[in-house]
Every structure is written in C-alpha cells, then in structure tokens.
Automatic annotation (TrEMBL):
Residues 112-263 form the Phosphoribosyltransferase domain. The gene is purR. CDD domains: PRTases_typeI. This is Pur operon repressor. It holds the Pfam family PuR_N. Keywords: DNA-binding, Transcription, Transcription regulation. The keyword DNA-binding applies. Belongs to the purine/pyrimidine phosphoribosyltransferase family. PurR subfamily. Homodimer. InterPro entries: PRTase-like, PRTase_dom, Pur/Pyrimidine_PRTase, PuR_N, PurR_Bsub, WH-like_DNA-bd_sf, WH_DNA-bd_sf. Residues 4-73 form the Bacterial purine repressor N-terminal domain.
Length: 277
C-alpha cells in the first residue's frame, strides 16, 4: 500500500529512534512504504536536517548495495546544558539531604523523563567511541545503565554484591568503600563479559569512588577495557577519591550553615565532553 510522505516521515523517524546506531537499508524502507529509493533518500535528507537543526543527533547515509541509514542520538552542547540545568533544578531541594551528607535521588531515577535525558547525555559522551557493554552495580544504577544502553544500543551488565544461583560461575573482587573505608565484595557472572570488551561504567552517585574502583578492578579481572566512567551525581568528599577521570552530570554538596542545605550545580560533563582539548 502506498504511504503518504507525511506518514512516511513520522514512521521512519519513529523506527530510526527505536533502532539507534543500527544500519537500516533503503531497501527495507522502500518495501515497507512501497516507495522508490529516490523518495526514501529525500525523506532521509529531511530527517537528517531536522535532527541536525535541533541538535538531537545525526543521521548518516551509507552508499552501496549493503548501505543504508544510521541514526546516532546525542545532545548538542546547548541541549546538554539545558538538560543538566533541569537536573540541577530537580535536585535543588533541601529535603533530599540524608544522614552522612548523601542525597536522595531514587525518585528522580524512577522518572522516565529524567532517565531519557540522563541516558542521552551518557550516549553523547561516548558517541564516537567503541563501546561494547555498559556496566553498573545493583541496584540504583540499573535504570541509568538501561537508559544509556538503549541510546547506545548496547547490552548492560549488573555487578552484584552477592551470588545469585541463576548467574552461574562468577568472578569476584574485594574493594574498599571510599566513604566508610570498609572491605566489600562484588561479583559478576563469567558469561556476561568477554575478554577485550570495551566497557563504560555508570552509577547513580559518587562520593569516595570505592564502588567505581571496584568495578574498574573487576573489568581488569576479565581482561576487558575500561572506556570511561560516568555518574549522575558527584558528592563532596574529604581527601582523595579512589578513581580519577570520572565524569559527573551534576554536583551536590551539603552546606553546613545554620541548618544543612543542598548546593547543586553542573558537574564535569560539559567540560569533559565539549571543552576537552
């Protein structure tokens, strides 16, 4: 059945967004809409221009019999700054402050609109890097890893604090908690990570960096490669962190005035992604 151009454009955009970073052949679209390749190419040009103009990603077309179109979602610098400003506004609430100067973020991590922004921001950071898998630790980092994995179109793996019989054989490491200086253990199933895999580590909150350092050690045990580390929020810490080169979307600190309040602001994301030398 012949499809009108307006309907084609809507459905093509939807399909490309649901299959990010995947090559979709022009033949597939031509058969889907009973349209000539020339018409499909014109439609893709419109979509490419729209994504570029709004700073929401890039659409590349690959010529040849095995070619097609690939949509890579990301944020322009302007859109990233707006997304991070919205996160800062959402966190700037003194009632979020918990004992030990931690900040309550669980409600934000449960919001689909927040997760979409966070996932797209993380995908922006690694848009031109070779990534095979996203890694996080149970439990609060899971929604963030899932959102990032969706935009990067890569699987994500969950590091656990204890063995699950359904995981099969596991690899475990001991690590030092950066904030309370306790020895802890984390485990990952042998089947979930291959030697040589390129891994991005994500988590919800970083204080001393002990958990991130533990995942870094675990990646080394698998003979895999650490591409980078990104957290939703970075807290203030006294002394030296256990990890370097971790990107944060926002920073949240407890200010000890007459009563403790939250001071929130942008993290290192803009500098690390858009202003690096």
């Amino acid at each position: 059945m012949k499809v009108r151009r307006s309907n084609r454009l809507v459905d093509m955009t939807r399909y490309l967004m649901e299959h990010p970073r995947s090559l979709v052949s022009l033949k597939f679209f031509g058969e889907r809409y009973d349209s000539a390749k020339s018409s499909i190419s014109e439609d893709l040009s419109i979509i490419r221009h729209t994504f570029h103009s709004w700073g929401m990603g890039r659409l590349e077309t690959i010529p040849g019999a095995s070619g097609g179109a690939v949509l890579t979602p990301f944020y322009s610098k302007e859109n990233a700054e707006k997304a991070i400003a919205d996160l800062v506004d959402a966190v700037s609430d003194d009632t979020r402050l918990l004992p030990g100067d931690y900040v309550y973020l669980s409600d934000l991590i449960g919001r689909p609109d927040i997760l979409r922004r966070v996932g797209r921001l993380i995908a922006t950071q690694y848009v031109d890097q070779d990534v095979d898998v996203i890694m996080t630790v149970e439990t609060k980092g899971i929604p963030i890893a899932q959102s990032a994995a969706m935009y990067l179109n890569k699987p994500f793996v969950i590091v656990r604090n204890s063995s699950h019989i359904t995981e099969g054989p596991t690899v475990s490491v001991n690590y030092v908690s950066g904030s309370v200086k306790r020895i802890k253990k984390m485990e990952l199933s042998r089947r979930t990570l291959s030697a040589g895999a390129n891994v991005v580590v994500v988590d919800d909150f970083m204080k001393g960096g002990g958990t991130l350092n533990g995942m870094k050690s675990l990646i080394k045990e698998f003979d895999a490669n650490l591409v980078g580390m990104t957290v939703l929020a970075e807290g203030e810490v006294t002394g030296k962190r256990l990890v370097d080169n971790c990107t944060s979307l926002i920073k949240v600190n407890a200010v000890d005035d007459e009563k403790k309040t939250i001071q929130a602001g942008p993290g290192s994301f803009i500098k690390d992604v858009f202003e690096k030398e």
